[in-house]
Amino acid sequence: MSVMIKVGMADLNVCAAPEALTTLGLGSCVGIVLYDSSTKTAGMVHVMLPDSTKIKNNENVAKFADTGIDALIGKLISIGANRNRLIAKIAGGAQMFAFNSNNDMLRIGERNTEASKLKLQSLGIRILAEDTGLDYGRTIEFYPETGQLYIKSVGKPLKIL
Q1: Which end of the chain is more exposed for a tag (fewer CB within 10 A), N or C?
Q2: Cross-referenced Pfam families, in alphabetical order (predicted)?
C-alpha cells in the first residue's frame, strides 16, 4: 500500500512511487499534477487563484496558478524528474455557486482552470487529462506508480484519468 502525502489548500508537494499524493475539497480551486513516467516522480499543487500579479499579499507561491506551477517544477527536478518529460493532469475549477453574472470574481473556478492551462501551455507541458468545471467539488489522488489520477466526488462514480 502506498504512503499518501496530503497537499493542503494553497500548498504543493512532490513524491516518488510507491508514494502517492492527495488533495481534498477542490471546489473552485484547481489541483494540478505534474508527472514524469520514467522516474515515477510526481508533484501536485492546489491553486486557489489564477494570477499572483493581481494580489498584493502573494508570498505563498502555491496559492497561484502562475507561481505554483513554476515552484512545483523546481521541486520535481530536485527529486529527479526530467523537466522535458513532465506531463500534466488537472482537476477542479468548479463553479460552486449558481448565479447569472459575468463578474470575474465569481467566475474564479473557470479563471483558475484557464490560468493553469495557459501556464502549462507556455511551459510546453502537455495536459494528458482533465476533469474541470461543472458544479461540484472533487478530491483527487495521484499514483505515480501507474500514472492514474483518481477523482472522487460526493454522489458521483469514481473517475480514473
Answers
A1: N
A2: CheD
